[in-house]
Amino acid sequence: MMEGSVMRVRDTKRQTRVMEIYQADELKTGQDYFYAAYVMQHGGSTESYLLAHEFSLASLALGYTRARWIAAASYDRLLKSIGRPQRFGTQYSTLGGAGMSLYQTDDGVRDSLRTVLKVPSLDSARARETDFAKRFPPSTKPIFSLATFAPDRPPPAEFDVLDLKSGDIAPEPLNQPQPEYPGSLLPRNLAGSAFVNAVIERDGTASNIKIALSSHEAFGAAAETAFRQWTFKPGVKQGRPARVIVMVQFNFAPPTAK
Fold first, then answer.
1. Which residues pair with 145 in a beta bridge?
2. What are phi and psi of 143, to 5 degrees?
3. What digits encode the pLDDT tens for the residues 48-101?
4. What string of DSSP letters covers the chain?
5. pLDDT tens figures, 15-33
6. What CATH class is the domain 91-258?
7. What was the pLDDT predicted at 94?
8. CA-to-CA distance for 138 and 148, rounded, in angstroms?
9. What is the largest CA-CA distance in the chain?
10. What is the pLDDT of residues 140-164, one digit of tens each?
11. Residue 230 needs a FRET pair 20 to 30 A away by CA distance; which of 7, 94, 176, 197 works?
12. 104-117: pLDDT as tens digits
């Protein structure tokens, strides 16, 4: 199996080359657009997924029917990248240490349409998800961390940015109730995770609690319910209480997998 960093370097080079070919208007045939779609499908950004989908549509318009699956998959990945449920059930999520599970899927697409696009049935996708859950059992320990910011996109001035190497102290979770596994998902035996963003105020209370990302909305609801019961010792910046943004990753495993 190819090591992840090597694969990313290779994929980046391929994407750069595809964009050079595209900008030079040298994508001509359905097969050209088909292979370009596959390369851009691994681009890691909403823009690259959009191009992958457009390339797959161009491939189909030029009569290259092998592009049916990538047309569906690129659309699913595009929707996933903007936080919306996928349509066809081609995308799975790992979300940190939470194992692999089927990304949230809209139930409005019929399997007859999936068949036209060479996509397995939704039952088949869920069966694969169950297999993944057995093969890659997740850790259920929450992961607490300070939010990170790019140098050109710092947090608003009303928040503190801690420098732990210089003696600042991160908020400390004191009481940490664990979320309950959602009963509605028990029949599906899913693993998954949810990320909660929040502000830890200078008195240690949590505010602005939001679900940043979840592999299923039921995991998000369970994570938020649990996090609202957490208590904290406030962070410290230069000897004074700090107001900081934090993130907690909650991982879920079905009771039988723990």
1. 247
2. -115, 115
3. 999 999 999 999 999 999 999 999 999 999 999 888 999 999 998 765 455 577
4. ---HHHHHHHHHHHHHHHHHHHHTT---SHHHHHHHHHHHTTS-SHHHHHHHHHHHHHHHHTT-GGGHHHHHHHHHHHHHHTT--BSSS--EE-TTTS--EEPPB-TTS-HHHHHHTT---HHHHHHHHHHHHHHSPPP---EEEE----TTSPPPTTS----GGGT-B--EEEE-PPPPPPGGGGGGT--EEEEEEEEE-TTS-EEEEEEEEESSHHHHHHHHHHHTT-EEEPPEETTEE--EEEEEEEEE--GGG-
5. 999 999 999 999 999 999 9
6. alpha beta
7. 65
8. 24
9. 67
10. 788 899 987 767 778 888 999 898 9
11. 94
12. 899 899 999 999 99
Judging by DSSP bridges, how do beta strands 231-233 and 101-102 pair with one another? unpaired
* Burial (0-12, 13-18, 19+ Cβ within 10 Å), 213: middle
What is the pLDDT, as a whole number, of residue 2? 42
By the 8 A CB rule, do 248 and 185 touch? no
Ordered by start, the domain boundaries in the chain are: 1-84, 91-258
Give the Å distances, CA to CA, from 248 to 73, 169, 199, 222.
Answer: 30, 17, 11, 13
- pLDDT over 90 (residue 181): yes
